[in-house]
Amino acid sequence: MTPGLRGFYEGSDGTVFRRLPRNVDPKQDGTHLAQHRPRLFNTTDPDDSVPLAEFDRRIEALVPAAVIARIDNAIEAGAMLSTRGLADQPPLALHEWRRGMILSWSHARDLEVIHDAMGHPRALANRHDVDEVVLAIHLKKRIDRADPWYRNYVQSLDDGAWINVGFFNPHLSASMYKWGDAKHGMQNAMDAHRLSAHHQGNPEAPLDWIERAVNFVIHHIPREHWGIRHEPRGSYHDLEPRLAEDPAIKNSEIGKAIARDAAALCALLEQEGKIVPWGKLAVPKDQLTPSVIEHAFLITRPTGNARPEMLTDGETGDEEPARIQRAHTILARLPEAIAEAEAVGRPELVAAYRKFLADV
Question: Which of 64, 176, 258, 269 is 20 to 30 A from 184, alpha carbon to alpha carbon?
Fold first, then answer.
């Protein structure tokens, strides 16, 4: 293999030895390979200063109207398909589901910029996490322990059909948003999504360690505040502990090397306003939203039904006790959440929270 401009990324990925071109050293090269990318965000605010509602408004303002319409249509269609047994039950808070899709579309746009900066350009905008296709036959081989709605949907597909395993598939979208919620058991849409190139890959789109490691940086530090992993924003200083402990990457030397470069470039790109500048967000304290509570409840359900092939990318949570402990801490506040829901006249939340409390 021809070396990159800065040599190679190389090492075991936990199973096999891999070598990939390294085209940028962040300390020497900075983000010059992404210099053609426009500045999207104002970065003059002090760090940790922008309220969440305003920060979300700025992110949504950069999403094209056609994409917003598609997000809203996916939510509406997903709710309807749920009533027909072809999609998961919608999350408790539809606006948080909508926010999750907005963040995922923005994440895909940002990943394309980051890949440019790394010297590994990829056409990821409008694709990564939102529109990624996999042949239905591969999904059909992984439904033996799925929930009924998921089996119904997958079994209705032709073997040779290309199926979107991303957020914009209304059959999968709600389940995608609630991923992480049944980490030890049936994961349905996330089981399908793991066939994408930045997780496990598939015969038509093999595992891509550049994309997987860049994705790890954003999702697993995490930089996103309460994104797909339902965790508060972390710091780039958290990277090394994550690399050492997170089962998604701890055994991959090549993945760690790529992630370190990616994190350094992401920090620079945030400062330049070319990707979402998460450092400007004033992270809310003691956040207790319907999504946070629902996630905390479901992540602690010990269903024990996970299949070995679901676990090969390390996304099970079995070795992430801090996530489970945080969930239990949130569930201890259910009486407080019930009182708040009663005070604002949200009987549907009161009913859901009381059900959670009875099962804790």
Answer: 258
SS3 content of the chain, % helix, strand, coil (to 5): 50, 5, 45
Q: Which residues of 88-109 are buried (b: 16+ CB within 10 A; e: fewer)?
A: bebbbbbebbbbbbbbbbbbbb
Please tell me the least confidently modeled range out of 104-113, 130-139, 204-213, 314-323. Answer: 314-323
142 — pLDDT class (breaks 50, 70, 90): confident
Token code pair at residue 132: 């990624």
189 contacts: CB under 8 Å, gap ≥ 6: 88, 150, 165, 172, 173, 174, 175, 176, 179
- How far is 235 from 223, CA to CA, in rounded Å? 7
Q: Could you tell me the two tokens for 69?
A: 């319409």
The reported pLDDT for the residue numbered 183 is: 47
Tell how far CA 300 is from the center of its chain. Answer: 19
Cα(72)–Cα(16) distance, rounded to whole angstroms? 42
* E strand segments, the chain: 8-12, 17-21, 133-135, 162-164, 201-202, 205-206
Candidates 152, 252, 178; CA nearest to 209 is 252
Give the C-alpha separation, 120 to 273, whole Å. Answer: 20
How far is 256 from 197, CA to CA, in rounded Å? Answer: 17
Give residue 339's identity as a one-letter amino acid code. A
Distance CA 266, CA 231 (A): 19
CA distance 57 to 313: 33
DSSP string, 9-59: EEEE-SSSEEEEE----HHHHTTGGGTTSPP-S---SPTT-B-HHHHHHHH
Per the DSSP assignment, residues forming a β-bridge with 7 are 4
pTM of the model: 0.92
In tens, the pLDDT along 143-193 reads 887 899 999 999 999 999 999 999 999 999 999 998 754 444 457 898 899
Q: If you write DSSP's letter for every residue of 291-332 in order, what string do you get? A: HHHHHHHHHT-------GGGSTTSTT-TT-HHHHHHHHHHHT
Reading phi first (left if > 0) and then psi (alpha if -120 to 50, else beta), residue 345 is in: left
